[in-house]
Amino acid sequence: MDGQVSGLPRVAGIYDALLGGTCNRAADRDAARQLGEAVPGAARAARDNRAFLVRAVEVLSAKVGITQFLDIGAGPVTDRSVHAIARAANPGAQVVYVDNDPLVVSHTQAQLSADRSAIAVQGDVRYPGLLLSMREVNDVIDFSRPVAALLVAVLHFVPDSDEPWSAVKKITDYLAPGSYMVLSHVTGDEISDEAVRRAGEIYHGALVRGTARSKAETMRFFDGLEMVHPGLVDVAEWRPGCRASVVGGPVLFWAGLARKSGGRW
Questions:
Q1: Could you say which of 3.40.50.1820, 3.40.50.800, 3.40.50.150, 3.40.50.920 is the CATH number of the domain covering 11-259?
Q2: How far is residue 258's CA from residue 238's CA, in Å, rounded to a whole number?
Q3: Residues 199, 166: contact at Cβ < 8 Å?
Q4: What is the C-alpha to C-alpha distance for residues 12 and 113, in angstroms, rounded to an integer?
Q5: What is the pLDDT of residues 59-90, one digit of tens each?
Q6: What is the pLDDT of residues 160-185, one digit of tens each?
Q7: Is 18 helix (H, G, I), strand (E, B) or coil?
Q8: What is the full DSSP assignment across 41-61?
Q9: What is the rounded distance in angstroms from the CA atom of residue 25 to the CA atom of residue 174?
Q10: Exposure of 75 by Cβ count < 10 A (0-12 exposed, 13-18 middle, 19+ buried)?
Q11: What is the pLDDT of residues 88-117, one digit of tens each?
């Protein structure tokens, strides 16, 4: 799903550039600039999406007591990484970062080289059976206990032909009762068809097919799970507290959190 040819932009690099990070190259920054021109507010939406991930992990770790996180499509690890956020509440929290970009994985592995409870592996959300059966993953995650599966800003890179809804169901079916899913997804509900088309062209330059989905299509990923308040909403409006985005604009990401029923958690 990711551009890995020298000189081409990479999905993870484009996102990092939108966030103002340093794990990107000139091609990534150029693609991010083009995306911002095609979809005004793209950089703000990326920051709001990252802030949503932070808030969701804070809720799950500090208020729910989840200590295991499977971050699929994680991208580069930042200073506000999942393991750092989770360990602020639970020092023993365990995290597996998954990405299909080998450059991202090697970068994250280097950062986590001394940490046996937070690892990075190369994997793909399109092949959940392979991912969930990896020895490295199972050495860190105990799937007989609740896990938070993070699918943040990744599924819009999986076309309908690759059956993303089936892939997500395989993941949630594998998780223990009391587990949670955190998900955000790009949408074209409130922007023009031309903006959606142009964004797709930019990502096609990174050798991926971007697929903006409607709120109803995104809601399908939560089938069989119990939505947590406030439901599926604009990524900036998911429990923003005092950190709400100060810039208005169209919804560019839908986001939500849901629980797998059963168990004592």
A1: 3.40.50.150
A2: 13
A3: no
A4: 21
A5: 999 999 999 999 999 988 877 899 999 999 99
A6: 999 999 999 999 999 999 999 999 99
A7: helix
A8: THHHHHHHHHHHHHHHHHIII
A9: 37
A10: buried
A11: 999 999 999 999 999 899 999 999 988 989
